[in-house]
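Hi support team,

I submitted a single chain yesterday and got back a structure, but I'm not sure I'm reading the C-alpha cell output correctly. Could someone confirm the output below corresponds to the sequence I sent? I've pasted both exactly as they appear in my results page.

Thanks,
R.
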Amino acid sequence: MWVRNCWYVIAWEHEIPADGFLARTVLGEPLLAYRTGNGQLTILEDRCCHRQAPLSKGRREGDCIRCGYHGLKFDAQGSCVEVPGLDKAPPGARVKTYPVAEHNKWVFVWMGDTARADITLLPDNFSNDDPAWHYKPGYMHYDTPYLLICDNLLDFSHLSYVHEKTLGGSPAIAQARPVIERVSDKGQRGLRVTRHVPNVPPPPYYSKIRPLSGNVDRWFIYDFLLPGTLLMKSGGRPVADAPDDLSNAVQLHSCQTLTPETETSTHYFFQQAHQTGRGDASVTEGIFQSLVAAFNEDKDMITAQHRNLNADAAMQPLWMDAALIQWRKLLEQEVATEQARHAAA
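Hi R., thanks for writing in. Yes, this is the structure output for that exact sequence:
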C-alpha cells in the first residue's frame, strides 16, 4: 500500500559520488542515481531496455551510462545514443527517467505521475542543512515492510521498554497520553503527535550534551507526514525551571524518513541534531552512536514481529494505537484517491 505521487528519499546527498553512481530500489523499481559533469542529479531506471540487465553493472562514460551486457549507451535523459554494430540507435530505445530534487541534504525521487511532481511538497527537514544544528547522518536497511516501522514511529510508548536503557529510561513515557492532530498545510498531509512526560530521570544520552543532576520534564512533538517522514522537536528541561525557560534544557531536532524498497524491505534515513555550541564533535558522535544502538533495538523487535505475524490472527487494538490507526486510514484514503484518478484518466 504505497502512495506514488509524493517525494521519497533515495539517498543522502553524500551517498551519490561525483564520478560514479548509486543503485537503489524504491517501491520495487530499480533506480540508478548519478551526477552529470555540471553536478546536476539524474535518476534513471536501472534496467537496460534491451534485455533488462542492470545498468549499474555497467560503467560511467562522461555523462552517459554504458550497459555492461551488450554495450548500449544512454544519456542523462534516458535516450540510447549508441548501439554497438549500428550506425544509429533505434528511436524507441530509451530507459525511464524520474523527477529528482535535492533538498536539505536529502535526495528525493518522485515515483508517480511526472506532471504532478511539485517541489513545494518537499518536507521541512531544515536541521539537515542549518548551521544552528549539528548531527551525523544515518542510514539503516530493514528486511520488513515499511508500515511496521511507521507503526513504531507513531507510538512512542515503546520507548519505555524497547529503549529502557537508551532513549527511554522511564515507564512514564508509556503512560503519557499523546495529543494527536491532523496536519494539512502547504500540501503536507499527516499527523502531529505531542507527548509531554513530566518529572522523569533524563535518559543516559542527555549527559553527552549537558550534565543534568535531577529529574526533567521531557517532550516529544513531531509531524509524521506522507509518505513516511518524521520531523521532531524533543528535549528535556530541569523540573525546577519554568516551562518557558530553556536555558538549561536539552533541545534536539530529528529528521527521519522511510522509503519502501520492496513490499518486505525498507530504507531508513535518520539524524538527531543538537544545537550548535552545545558540545563538540565527540558529542555529535555520541548522540549518533546512542541513536544507532536504539534503532538497532527497534530493528530487532520489528524484525521479530514481522517473522511472528500471522494473517489469520486477530490483533487487539489498544489506546496507544490511536495514531497509527489514523495514519493507516489516511494512507488508505490517499491510495484510493490516486487509484480513482488513474482509473478516470
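A quick pointer for reading it: The two ends are 21 Å apart (CA to CA). Let us know if anything else looks off.

Best,
Support desk
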